[in-house]
Write a structure and sequence with these properties.
The complex is a heterodimer of chains A (about 325) and B (about 300). In chain A, helix 8 links the parallel strand 11 and strand 12. Chain A is elongated, with a radius of gyration of 21 Å. By secondary structure, chain A is α+β, with helices and mostly antiparallel strands. In chain A, the strands form 2 sheets. Chain A has a 9-stranded mixed β-sheet, with helices on both faces. In chain A, strands 1-2-3-5 form a 4-stranded antiparallel β-sheet, with helices on both faces. Chain B is an alpha+beta fold and about 300 residues long. Chain B contains 8 helices and 13 strands. The longest helix of chain B is centred in the first third of the chain and has 18 residues. The chains are: A alpha+beta (about 325), B alpha+beta (about 300). At the A-B interface, helix 3, strand 7 and strand 13 of A face helix 3, strand 7 and helix 8 of B.
C-alpha cells in the first residue's frame, strides 16, 4: 500500500486532518480567490471537519506515512430519501497530500459504507484540482453537479426586449407553468428521476418565496407573456453551497428557467442581469449558482455568463 | 451549438464518418505511436454493422463534422445497455460528443437501456466531454512493446502449462475475482467457469504460463491474440487473466512471469503486448503502468443517478 498505514478515522486525527484540509483550501484559493479565506486557517477548517465527523452515521479513513497524516476521508449519510441509501463526503470531507492516496482512503472508508448498505456515494470535490478529479474518476465516480462562482458584475449588462421584474402573488399561475427544470432534466442526457410536487404544494412554496423579503423571485415577460423566472437569495439558503464552498458576502441564483420556445430571444440573459442587479442593490459581492453537468443548456449557459466552477459533486452507484 | 444540425446516422454517412475517424485516430496515434494505423472505413463499417446499432451525425452547413453511434444489447450482468465502440465516435470538436450522445441516448433510454458504456481514447481532451456527461472510468486498455529480457528470480520457475493445470488456473482466477469484488472495485463476484478454463487451456492459440516455487504455484499469465479493433496492432498479443497469488506477492514472481511472457511474445513475432485492468482495482491500476504499459483506451461507464 505504497508505505501507507490506513486506519479508520478517529477523534485523534482531527487536528492533523484540519491542517491538511486548510492547505487544500489554500491551494484552491490560489486558483479561485473568491472562496472564503477563513478556511485557510486550521481552526476554521477543523470546525467544518468536526461538524462532518460528528454527523449521524459518520465514518471514514486516514492514511499515515512515517507517522504523519497524509490523507483523510470522512463521510456521513444525508437523511433525504432523494439520495437513496447514501454517503456524502462533504466539502470538508477529504484531503490528501497526493491525489492517489484518495483511492486508498476510499477503499477503506467505502468498505464500511457498503457493509451498512449505503451504495450511493457522493463527493464534493474541488473542481480546481485536476489530479484529484482524475483520482475520483478512476474510482468510478462520475460528475453530477457543478458549483459556479463569480463576482457580481459592477455594471449592468445590455437590456433587451425582455422585461424582468419582481414577482407578485398574482404571478403564481405563470410561475407554476415555469417550473420546468425537473421535467427538462428527466430527459436526455440528464435522465434524472423527477416527480413533480402536487400543485397546491408548489403554489404554497412559490407564494412563500415571493413573500420572503430576503430573497427575490424574478419573472420575465416577452411581448406580454411570462416566459421565464429566476430566484435569488442569500447563500445561507443553500445547503449545497455550504462549508468550504460557501463564499463570504454571497448570494445564490437558485433557480432559472425559460420556456423552450423562447430560447435565443434573450430571456435567460435578461433574467441573469435582473439577478445581478438585485445582488448589486443589496451589496452582495459574490454570486453562486449550480447546474447539472449533464444538463447541456445549463452547463454551457452559466460558464458563458462568467461563472467559474469551484466544486463538483461526483457520484458513484454500486447498485 | 450554432449551425449544427443533428440527424440519425445512416449508411450514407459511412464515408464521411471514415474521414472523421481517420483524422481522430491519427491524432490519437500521435499521442500513442504503438497504436496501429486504421483502415477507418472498414472500422466504422464493422462497428456500424453490428446488430441494434443506432446513432447521430452532426452536420455543419450540410457537412458531417462528428458522429456517434452505439449498439444496444442485453446481458445478465448489465441488463439492457448501449455501448459506443472505439470506432463508434469521432469528430473535430470534442464538445459535440455531448450533443450527439444526448440526441442518440433518447432512443436507447426509451428502449430500456439504463447502463451506458463508451470506449474512448485516453487523452484528456477526448475524456473530458464524456466526464461532463456523467461517465466515470471503468476499464483501462494499455499497450507496451515486447522488448524485455526475462528476469530470473531465485527459486521461481516459469513453465508453459495446459489442461493438467486447470485447478491452478481456476484457483488464481478465483483470486482475481475476489480481489475485484472487494473495495473499492465492488465488481460482482462470478464463479470461475471450469468449462471456460477447459476451453482456454485446450486452445492451441492460447499460451498459459505458470510461475512456481518448489512445485507450488505463485501466479499465472494467459496470452492469446485479441479480436481486431481500432488501434489494436495485428502483431499484438493480449495479456488476459494474469495475477500472482496474495501469498506470493513481493517474491518477484510477477516480474518473472511478465518478462518471460514478453520475451516469449517477442520470439513469436509479436511486437507489442496489450492488456487491460479495472481502474478501481488499486493493485492492478498501479502495477501495470509501473511495468511499462501505456494507456490507450478507457472504457467509461454511466448509470444515471437517483437524484
Amino acid at each position: 500500500m505504497r508505505g501507507l498505514d490506513l486506519l479508520p478515522f478517529a477523534d485523534e486525527h482531527l487536528d492533523e486532518a484540519a491542517e491538511l484540509l486548510a492547505r487544500r483550501h489554500s491551494r484552491q484559493r490560489a486558483v479561485e480567490p473568491l472562496l472564503s479565506p477563513a478556511f485557510e486557517q486550521p481552526r476554521a477548517a477543523r470546525a467544518e471537519l468536526e461538524a462532518a465527523w460528528q454527523a449521524d452515521g459518520a465514518s471514514g479513513a486516514t492514511a499515515i506515512r512515517d507517522g504523519r497524516l497524509v490523507g483523510f476521508m470522512v463521510g456521513a449519510p444525508r437523511t433525504s430519501p432523494l439520495w437513496g441509501p447514501n454517503v456524502f463526503v462533504e466539502t470538508a470531507g477529504h484531503a490528501a497530500e497526493e491525489a492517489e492516496t484518495v483511492r486508498d482512503l476510499y477503499g477503506l472508508a467505502a468498505a464500511r459504507w457498503v457493509d451498512e448498505g449505503r451504495t450511493s456515494h457522493y463527493v464534493l470535490a474541488p473542481a480546481t484540482d485536476p489530479s484529484l478529479l482524475e483520482a475520483w474518476s478512476r474510482l468510478g465516480f462520475g460528475q453530477q453537479q457543478g458549483l459556479g462562482i463569480q463576482e457580481v458584475p459592477t455594471r449592468p449588462g445590455e437590456a433587451g426586449r425582455v422585461e424582468v421584474r419582481d414577482s407578485v402573488p398574482d404571478d403564481v399561475d405563470d410561475l407554476i407553468a415555469l417550473d420546468l427544470l425537473g421535467e427538462h432534466q428527466s430527459g436526455s442526457p440528464v435522465f434524472s428521476a423527477h416527480t413533480r410536487p402536487p400543485e397546491d404544494e408548489l403554489r404554497a412554496d412559490i407564494l412563500e418565496e415571493i413573500a420572503d423579503p430576503e430573497a427575490a423571485m424574478l419573472i420575465a415577460h416577452l411581448d406580454g407573456r411570462a416566459v421565464g423566472c429566476a430566484t435569488v437569495a442569500p447563500v445561507s439558503y443553500s445547503s449545497l453551497h455550504g462549508g468550504l464552498a460557501r463564499p463570504d458576502d454571497a448570494c445564490i441564483l437558485g433557480y432559472a428557467a425559460t420556456l423552450p420556445e423562447v430560447r435565443g430571444h434573450g430571456a435567460g440573459l435578461a433574467l441573469t442581469e435582473g439577478v445581478f442587479a438585485w445582488a448589486r442593490d443589496r451589496g452582495y459581492r459574490i454570486i453562486v449558482v449550480d447546474w447539472r453537468t449533464t444538463n447541456l443548456l445549463a452547463s454551457r449557459f452559466w460558464p458563458a455568463r462568467g461563472f467559474r466552477t469551484s466544486f463538483l459533486r461526483l457520484h458513484r452507484s454500486l447498485t | 451549438m450554432n449551425r449544427i444540425e443533428l440527424r440519425p446516422f445512416a449508411d450514407d454517412q459511412l464515408d464521411a464518418a471514415a474521414v472523421l475517424l481517420a483524422a481522430a485516430h491519427e491524432t490519437h496515434r500521435a499521442a500513442e505511436p504503438l497504436l496501429a494505423p486504421a483502415d477507418a472505413r472498414a472500422e466504422v463499417e464493422r462497428a456500424w454493422s453490428k446488430d441494434d446499432t443506432s446513432g447521430i451525425v452532426a452536420l455543419r452547413d450540410g457537412e458531417p463534422v462528428a458522429y456517434l453511434f452505439a449498439r444496444e444489447a442485453e446481458s445478465p450482468t448489465w441488463g439492457r445497455h448501449a455501448f459506443v465502440d472505439r470506432a463508434g465516435h469521432a469528430g473535430g470538436d470534442p464538445e459535440l460528443v455531448r450533443d450527439l450522445w444526448a440526441a442518440a441516448s433518447e432512443g436507447w433510454w426509451q428502449r430500456g437501456a439504463r447502463r451506458f458504456f463508451a470506449n474512448v481514447p485516453s487523452t484528456r481532451d477526448r475524456l473530458d466531454p464524456w466526464e461532463r456527461l456523467g461517465f466515470a472510468q471503468m476499464h483501462q486498455e494499455a499497450i507496451r512493446a515486447t522488448d524485455a529480457e526475462p528476469v530470473a528470480v531465485d527459486g521461481v520457475a516459469i513453465r508453459r502449462g495446459g489442461l493438467d493445470d486447470i485447478e491452478v488456473a481456476m484457483r488464481i482466477g478465483r483470486e482475481i475475482g475476489l480481489t475485484q469484488s472487494r473495495p473499492p472495485s465492488y465488481h460482482e463476484l462470478v464463479p470461475e467457469s471450469r468449462q471456460d478454463w477447459v476451453e482456454t487451456l485446450e486452445d492451441p492459440e492460447v499460451a498459459w504460463f505458470v510461475a512456481e516455487r518448489d512445485g507450488q504455484p505463485l501466479g499465472h499469465a494467459t496470452l492469446y491474440e485479441p479480436d481486431p479493433d481500432l488501434g489494436t496492432p495485428s502483431d499484438t498479443i493480449f495479456l488476459a487473466s494474469t495475477a500472482t497469488l496474495a501469498e506470493a506477492r513481493g517474491l518477484g514472481a510477477g516480474v518473472a512471469l511478465l518478462t518471460h511472457a514478453l520475451a516469449w511474445a517477442a520470439g513469436e513475432g509479436y511486437a507489442t503486448m496489450w492488456t487491460n485492468w479495472r481502474v478501481t482495482n488499486l493493485l492492478a491500476s498501479r502495477y501495470w503502468p509501473a511495468r511499462g504499459f501505456r494507456s490507450t483506451y478507457v472504457r467509461l461507464h454511466r448509470v444515471p443517478g437517483i437524484a
